[in-house]
Amino acid sequence: MKKTIKLLGVLLAGAVLFGACQEDPAVKPSQKATELTVEPDTIKAEIALTGPVDVQIKANGTWVVVNSLDWVHVDPNKGDGNATVQVTVDANEQDGEQLAPRSGEISFVGAATCSQTLTIAQAGNEDLLLETIPYKINFCESQGTWTIENKTLPSELTYVWQQTDKYGMKASAFVNQCFTAESWLISPVLDLTKETAAILNFDHALNKGSNAKCAVMAKATDSQEWVKLEIPTWPGTAGEDGVYTGTSWDFVESGDVDLSAFCGKKAQIAFAYGSSDTDAPTWEIQSVDVTNKVGPKFSVPTEDINIRAFDTEASIKVSGNVDWTATASEGASVEPASGKGGLTVTVTVPENTDMENAKEYTVTFKTTAAVETPEYVVKIVQAKAEQLAASTLAEIFEKGAGVYATGELVVKAKAAGNVIVSDGTANMMYYKKNNELAPGQVIKFANADVQDRNGLLQINASEYELLDKTVTPEHGTPVEILTDEAVQAWAGEPQYQYIHFEGVMSSDNRTIKCGDWGIYIVATEGFANKKVCVHGYANGKANESYKTITTTLVSIEAIEGGEPEPGPTPEEATLAQIFEKGVGVYATGELVVMAKAAGNVIVSDGTANIMYYKKGNELAPGQVIKFANADVQERNGLLQINSSEYELLDKTVTPDYGTPVEILTDEAVQAWAGEPQYQYIHFEGVMSSDNRTIKCGDWGIYIVATEGFANKKVCVHGYANGKANESYKTITTTLVSIEAIEGEEPEPETALKNCGEINAAILAGETALTIKLENPAEITLMGSDKKSIFIQDETGAVLVYNADLYTMLSGAGAVAGAAVQGEFTATATVFKGLPEITAAEVGASNITVTNKFPCLSLTIADLLADFDKYLNCKVKISDVAVNDGWSGSDKNGVIAQGETTIPLYVKTYNSSITVEVPTGAKGNFTGFVAYNNTTKQLTFWEDSGFEATEITGIITVKSSLNLEEGATANLAATVNSGAALSYASSDETVATVSAEGVVTAVKEGTATITVSAPAQGIYTAASAEVAVTVTAAQAGGDVTVLYEDKFDWLAPFIAQYAELNSGKKIGDTVGEANKSANAPNVYTTAPFNTEEFAAAFAEKGYVDLNPSDKLVYAQDQYLKFSKTKGFNTGIELNLGKYVEGTQSVDLSFDYAMMLQGSDTVDEGPVTVLIIGDGTFADGSKRADFVSAQQTGEFFWNKAEAKMLGITPNTKIQFLMGRVIQEDGSYNWHVSGAGRFFLDNILIVK
């Protein structure tokens, strides 16, 4: 039964069906992608034309591009499944001037629930901006990379600062009482090196105390001194000595905080919270912006502009970043007459024909902005006219580019703006767009502006005098250019020559070729694919790509009897024979048109039926046609005739359809679909509301839309002419007839009255719903994914999943605690077992605020006993044990009550989940009931969804430590409870440990360090062990070199490369400071792509970490790794041949970073990982090295590190740290640029 959804109340006028996808009439809805990813999701474009940039689309269906940015182009703009699209970004310029930086988004859209965004940010002239934003964060979304440093944390507290979705970063030292505490929230390093007037702004609230011990601090990275910043506005009431007491939760703006002392440097800021045992305020920070106030700028050069008498244009450059207007004096005009920022305006004046006086014009530029000089006046001085002595065209060719007067010139040929003129001494082209000249007219120039174009002189857009006479052009004897050789010979020495050419015209009537080469003309008509004879003026250099020379026509005519040789005549075949033979070109006998729908035509010759497809054809049933060249192709497993030309015979017949095949059940439809053929069928079923689909059950037929049968039971006769669409469970049919079956109307629509009925209908397979809720349904969650809305009443709950619908409902006032009511229709589906609404016709009149949050208190056993009843419901399950913990990155968890368990899945969006719930914790869970296919589970949406009553204490510390005698290392242990840690050594004769966790190696041997933390608050006590191995100190004296590579083994390959490439040298990017230095790929360039090079590479112990992308490049005795656009690699060095036993060694190497087109240094650090045995001196297996290179600088950096416990099983990896993920895996395609150079690897003992 078809169900519709109607909600109580009045719908908003103009309400529409909301979905995430643009409709493409050629794509059926269920074919659209429900899973879609875009990589990369951000393109950083240079000012110049950028691209095409490859963007990888992964999709399980069709998708389209929604692009409102006229400066960004995507090709293709739609597709089906996985694809690579190319994104091109126009140059951020106008008339050669750089524009302000710009950014925007384009969307890749699949089904209603599926869209992804690609952000394009393009560089520009930042001088055009009134302000720039070096840094920005909203703490309500995440903590970002800000760190917390607890300088004083009492044992009663586990934290001071915490991130919340509602209030941002929140600091408090009050837990039932005030505590003395000091905790700093510290920013990442902010790059202010290019800023001149940086300011800090933030929103903050202060309550329950004063700011007496709170401050905002800043320091330069090259200094250890923190400086207190003056904050213009504090929340609360002002007291003595600038102390404010906060009494509300209202956020206020801080005002502009001066950071000018840190401009030109890199710096950090910190929000320093302090409290006492009598004053412990709550301080909340939301958004933080660092901006650079550039200020308004406006200038125009005021020097006089001198132009020639016949010049009619002058250019003026406007600089600045404000709005302005331009006004020209009488007789002149200016374009554009207004603008913003830096642009070049064009001033147009008439030609000065006065031989006695020069002319003057002015242009006044004004702005209303507060600048030092708001008005500029520019004078344009146009010289008086001069009488030039006339020159012949032959003389002009001798003298070259310049301004000349001419004698009388006859127009000899014309095509569009190209005009060939002659004075008898030579021919020349005059070009002016939209000129109205014609052959035989006579003109002359007083000021012919002659310029060089494509190696030929031509007169450009000059004003001419049209004389009152005409002549018959004398073309003379043409030069015969009849062969490829002749065309190429002429192209080698271009000139304006009258030529004779013969060849075959292209189908677009533009190109005529005698072989591989030919001529290009302004399009003409009527000669497509014919052999023609052409006379005209060849007037341009050869186009090497198209192998043509441009020619201005004088005449063209078809050569009788010179038609191109026809191809072989197709054999005539019956349709039955065609089906036997398969794809090909055939002649047919007479074919009767049996049925037609849009471009689909079913034809028959009595032996078989076939479909002929041609868009826009005007055939009708009963007409008779035949084909001389029927192009038969396979489509969807069936042969059809594609877009071929037919002969319409002068007769009609009554089609004889014969007895139809009865296809009246689901089984019959599927049986036919298993062996598709063009069959005349009889079918009965109910027509869909869009008059396209007719079904007898789950299966049916699809037709070209008709009218008047929506939701009626119909009888259909037609030709089934396509394979089954498995998604829609239909076969395409070309109609012969359709009629309603009287007395068999489908059952009337039934409205669904509550959430329980809605879920039941969706689970039963209904997709088009009418809802009329008898009672308001409460919104229990507006999901952080900006797509999910949960609606619940006493009968159950419904999930609404649609990004556009979420946005619309949010705008209409939908929040958690509001209710949905009124009438609406909806589209629904079951996704992985979970019923959900994917589109709905609903407006603001359907939303009311009730401030109720229905939440069902259940046990896990109660839930599992009647699971479907509670689908999508918000439930609270108290006193649970966490059998498997979860977080924003570890999304799968399990909770239990006794022996009864249920899995859960974390729903995250932009780090919306920041809480980490550890295994072993106990507490109360609040979430939503869901399916994952057949798995019953709960979903976790908000940090507040778990109220912990007990959390297992967990100490984080390295599990082992290798030290030489006398060496020390800090264990840097932390505990999630924040409790004070204590340390103990199992054998202090081997290793001791201080109260701060610093281990000192005493003598050779092993010991165990135990780290302990007491129970604190809801956290249990915790302990962890560190295995310490102490080795004997290395004796002083001579250094033993275990491994050394100066990369001089590259020398013979470099020499061979030069021999193979005519002496071409391999570049030295770092030494020459040359970004464009030659760096051949060792995988694709000889002699590096040889077994000899691979053997030499392996002999040095190297392995490419990402060989499939082929990203290693040769330099002058060193190597380069990786390339831009997210392609990265590194190398691994196997020490098996170079180390014996267990060693402590020193590693050193030289490295440098590549520079980008903007001279920005590629993103580091260069990272060294120890794989297998051994650690660095600090006990870790990772060492990061940050290059000292600044913008535009190339030089080598020296890296040094001590490694302990190295054995033959040790491997060392050199790579960019940016590819290493949090879980330790490598993402070789992390976006951005991370190229580096490596040289002089040395390992010594």
User: How many runs of DSSP E, i.e. beta strands?
Assistant: 102
Question: Mind telling me the C-alpha Rg?
Answer: 40 Å
Q: What class would the helix/strand composition place it in?
A: mainly beta
Helicity, as a percent range: under 10%
Count of runs of 4 or more consecutive helical residues: 10
Taken from the alpha-carbon principal axes, the silhouette is globular
Ends apart, CA distance between termini: 83 Å
The average pLDDT value, as a whole number, equals 84
Which blocks of ≥5 consecutive residues have pLDDT under 50? Answer: 1-30
Give a short account of the largest sheet.
9 strands, antiparallel
- Tell me the β content: over 45%
Write the layout of secondary structure elements.
Layout: E1 3-4, E2 36-39, E3 42-45, E4 50-59, E5 62-66, E6 72-75, E7 78-80, E8 83-89, E9 93-94, E10 97-98, E11 102-109, E12 115-122, E13 131-138, E14 147-152, E15 161-164, E16 168-172, E17 181-186, E18 190-191, E19 198-210, E20 215-220, E21 227-228, E22 237-238, E23 244-247, E24 252-253, E25 257-258, E26 266-275, E27 282-293, E28 298-299, E29 305-307, E30 313-320, E31 323-328, E32 333-335, E33 338-340, E34 343-348, E35 359-366, E36 375-382, E37 390-391, H1 393-399, E38 402-406, E39 409-415, E40 418-422, E41 427-431, E42 441-444, E43 448-453, E44 456-460, E45 465-470, E46 479-480, H2 484-492, E47 497-505, E48 511-513, E49 518-520, E50 531-543, E51 548-558, H3 575-581, E52 584-586, E53 591-597, E54 600-604, E55 609-613, E56 623-626, E57 630-635, E58 638-642, E59 647-652, E60 661-662, H4 666-673, E61 679-687, E62 693-695, E63 700-702, E64 713-725, E65 730-740, E66 750-751, H5 755-763, E67 768-772, E68 777-782, E69 788-793, E70 796-801, H6 803-811, E71 818-820, E72 823-831, E73 834-840, E74 847-849, ...
Parallel strand pairs: 1-66, 3-12, 29-36, 37-38, 41-44, 46-47, 49-51, 55-58, 60-61, 63-65, 70-73, 75-76, 78-80, 83-90
Antiparallel strand pairs: 2-4, 4-8, 5-7, 5-11, 6-8, 9-10, 11-12, 13-27, 14-17, 15-16, 16-27, 17-26, 18-26, 19-23, 19-24, 19-25, 19-27, 20-21, 20-26, 22-23, 28-30, 30-34, 31-33, 31-35, 32-34, 35-36, 38-43, 39-40, 39-42, 40-41, 42-45, 43-44, 47-48, 47-50, 48-49, 50-51, 52-57, 53-54, 53-56, 54-55, ...
